[in-house]
Please model this.
Amino acid sequence: MHVLILGAAGMIGRKLAEALGRAPVVGSHGITRLTLADVVLPATPPGLEDRTDCLVADLGQPGEAARMAALRPDLVFHLAAIVSGDAEANLEKGYRINLDGTRALFDALRPNAADGARPRVIFASTNAVFGGDMPDVIGDDYLLTPQTSYGTQKAMCELLLADYTRRGLLDGIGLRLPTICVRPGKPNLAASGFFSNIIREPLVGQEAILPVGEDVRHWMTSPRSAVSFFLHAATLDPATLGGRPNLTMPGLSVTVGEQIEALRKIAGPRAVALIRREPDPLIQRIVTGWARAFDPARARALGFVAEAAFEDIIQAHIDDELGGEQPGLRRAS
Amino acid sequence: MHVLILGAAGMIGRKLAEALGRAPVVGSHGITRLTLADVVLPATPPGLEDRTDCLVADLGQPGEAARMAALRPDLVFHLAAIVSGDAEANLEKGYRINLDGTRALFDALRPNAADGARPRVIFASTNAVFGGDMPDVIGDDYLLTPQTSYGTQKAMCELLLADYTRRGLLDGIGLRLPTICVRPGKPNLAASGFFSNIIREPLVGQEAILPVGEDVRHWMTSPRSAVSFFLHAATLDPATLGGRPNLTMPGLSVTVGEQIEALRKIAGPRAVALIRREPDPLIQRIVTGWARAFDPARARALGFVAEAAFEDIIQAHIDDELGGEQPGLRRAS
Model:
């Protein structure tokens, strides 16, 4: 099986490639070839050095989607996109890359279907397809009302994916990912960054800024779970999707206060003391427009699993990013 | 006020232009100029002969959207599209006209907003944005899961309209129209055609074919109500839309059996006897995938009104298309 990852240099794309390197099978199919593409050169994962090609490609440029499709992948993980803030600041760039790039990819893959090779395409969507006035818990039948251009572009791609899949041109599955927490790396300026910052930084003895109240509730999952969603989706029987190939992924609905209590349990009061309150009305207002909780019954019935407690999300970060230890702090216990 | 109707040669577009000719005001604004555009030359409506321009334009062709925007309309009724069967048979044509044409229009109008002239755009969407497994009655918060490329293209345009409206680039409102009944003109091959055929043809003494069972339930409104939806939308205060500019329009949920009973009441048993049962399993299957009823609470609260009984829909047809009389039959009463 030839697997193509688009957006392979991103955080989830890289972890997905590494997971395939550790276990180079998808269902009952061994991975015979792995192609990694991104706007910067992706890294070859350990375990697949002998069969990995790394490419620089920008789906938003003419001809690039056709170049990817000509590689005739059996399975495409499509995670390439510009992020929410960039798409909001740059209207045309966002539509060109996030909508036109995805559409160009789907269109380029269509002739493969006509040749009898209908590729499975796992598309990274987002819970930002929801927004505005919403119920406390959003069910699988709830209307998509994105309040950002990024969410709009992802929702439009979901519709295209469903139509092309219905027509037999692709074998598509869309995954609406929760906010990823704990995001590794440095603090960034994304409005959602603090959800990760207030855990990741104190765990290594660094201060983190909390710009919102502790009662803010949000929907999260670990990078590890996000990778597991893509791998699980790759093995699903399309007949189980009932003609609705876009799925809200499971996650954990927690308040900032509950995040902090979980940090206290795992890393003690010295870690919690590193969280500095600096209320930011703009971020508070943005965050208030985001979904707080979902009831992803369809995804759960299909076998997608996420963390059940925020302590598990912290522990996944400690295991996967800190080698099982907290460099800056002793364990509280 | 300069009003532009795109798709002005179509059935609803033509009736909309005629309604503006009868009452050339929108809210408190007189119509100073009317531009009618379509792929075939539209007709000038009586009452606005001195200020109407009729154009041939295909939004799916390069430069055409810019030509329309350069006319600097204050109010755009966008009804231009290829129909469901055509979009299903011709994948690329459907996306080019129904999606790219609409997007080109919205993009061409953006610079007008930058100049301080944010045009109101009333977009003709459809209840075909719903499909597949659905509840008996679909509420305003229900997920869009179109089962045709036409419905997909309309749903994608709704998202784009909402995003551009949120960003202040347009002042958009999308109207999800029910199936129009009674459609004037000759019987056509559209799968939904029989809903109109079984009323229109018997009223003029002609036979009509009924390809489905009498228990088939569907969501309909008259051409007269559809025109009233566009006119009402043109006067709405955008602040009342609560950030959700796409609205399911009111209609009437009736079974084929109820349609026939209404015909019997108005035109008598001789008319009903002209309906010939010829079951068509394909049409029965297609129709089963369509929405049966809605609870369009938002649109009703905003003042959109449709017929409350199918007799009213038949009477609207007799009044508007048959000059108040039935040429082929005497009244039953």
